[in-house]
Each structure stands twice: as structure tokens, then as C-alpha cells.
Design brief:
- By secondary structure, this protein is of the alpha/beta class.
- It has one domain: Rossmann fold (3-Layer(aba) Sandwich).
- It is 18% helix and 28% strand.
- It contains four helices and nine strands, in the order E-H-E-H-E-E-E-E-H-E-H-E-E.
- It has a seven-stranded mixed beta sheet. A two-stranded antiparallel sheet has the order 3-4.
- Helix 3 links the parallel strand 6 and strand 7.
- The longest helix has 15 residues.
Length: 186
């Protein structure tokens, strides 16, 4: 497991440095872990952040799907699965090779249920990229976490890499991004 501090990016038109790091660095590297035909789930459809080109391009074609509890419409994309990640019981166990969940944690009522569902629907050795707000972003204790809470919050997933993003000196982190995997039953 690698704990990597984020070392800074220049903000772009009000986009946080953490989001720039995710979009330019972390999501493309995460996508490189997958091959043709792998099943990928993006949790939380967003009108501005479409990561499908990293998984579906001339060099690779994954089975990329989206999940959101909002049905879409207007500028919001229509999800493939109109479900909450906290209760997506209609999705089979061990189905996805990869899951991305960015900008969703702060809207969850029961994050522990979301992590349990992610663990259930990931295949053994399947990987997840999850970004959560740090205490420097939200002051609400239920909507953000400290770096030392990562191991507790992400259980039962096995943490492979942690990226702690600080956007202001001497302040708590604004976001924490984790790459984790589902363990293999022995």
C-alpha cells in the first residue's frame, strides 16, 4: 500500500486541484489497469465528468455502465442503472471488474452500505477508485473523513493506494482518493 501526498496542480476555471488531479492523472492510470471486455461501473452520473473515453477508445473497449439514484433528464445523463449504490441488490454478485465513485460519498446516507455493496458487486481482485471529501472540504463529520479513517471506512476492501489532496497550506485535506480491491476468498 502506498500513501502518496498530492503535490499540486493549477486550478482551472473554478475546478478544484483535486478534481484536476483525478481527471488528468488518477482516472487515466486507473483505466490502464483494465482490458477489452472488462465490466466497469461509474457511480454517480455527472453532466461534466464522463470517464468512458478512458475505458472505451480505439485501443480498448470495456463494458462501461453508469449507476445513479437520480433518473436523469435535463443536463443530467440517464444512468444505465437507476439505483443507489447503497442498495443495488438487483446487480449480481461479483459482476464488475472495476468501479469508480467520485463525488458521491458526501451524498450517501449510509456509506458503510455503499462500501458493502461495492465489495459485493466487484469480482474477486476487482478494483475500485473512490474519492471522498476530506475534513478541509466539509466540516460536517458525516460527510467527510480524515486520512487515518480510510482503513476503517473502506472496510472490507483492501486498500492499494491512497492519495491525500491538500489545496491550502496548514489546512486539513480537501479530498482523499483511494484505489482498493476486493480480496479473494481462500
Amino acid at each position: 500500500m502506498k500513501l502518496r501526498p498530492f503535490m499540486g496542480y493549477t486550478s482551472m476555471d473554478g475546478v478544484s486541484e483535486g478534481r484536476v488531479f483525478l481527471n488528468r492523472e488518477l482516472v487515466p492510470r486507473f483505466a490502464n489497469r483494465f482490458k477489452d471486455g472488462d465490466k466497469i461501473l461509474f457511480v454517480g452520473c455527472h453532466p461534466y465528468w464522463d470517464y468512458s473515453p478512458f475505458f472505451n477508445n480505439p485501443g480498448k473497449l470495456c463494458n462501461y455502465r453508469t449507476l445513479d439514484k437520480h433518473p436523469g433528464g435535463g443536463n443530467q445523463p440517464v444512468p444505465d442503472f437507476n439505483l443507489s449504490i447503497e442498495d443495488c441488490h438487483t446487480i449480481e454478485d461479483n459482476w464488475f471488474d472495476g468501479i469508480i465513485m467520485i463525488g458521491v460519498y458526501e451524498y450517501l446516507d449510509h456509506p458503510e452500505k455503499a462500501f458493502s455493496e461495492i465489495n459485493r458487486i466487484l469480482k474477486p481482485d476487482g478494483k475500485a477508485l473512490i474519492s471522498v471529501p476530506g475534513k478541509g472540504y466539509y466540516t460536517d463529520e458525516n460527510r467527510s473523513i480524515n486520512p487515518w479513517e480510510v482503513w476503517e471506512k473502506f472496510c472490507p476492501l483492501i486498500i492499494l493506494e491512497v492519495y491525500v489532496i491538500y489545496e491550502k497550506d496548514n489546512q486539513p485535506p480537501t479530498s482523499i482518493s483511494v484505489i482498493a480491491k476486493k480480496g479473494v476468498a481462500k
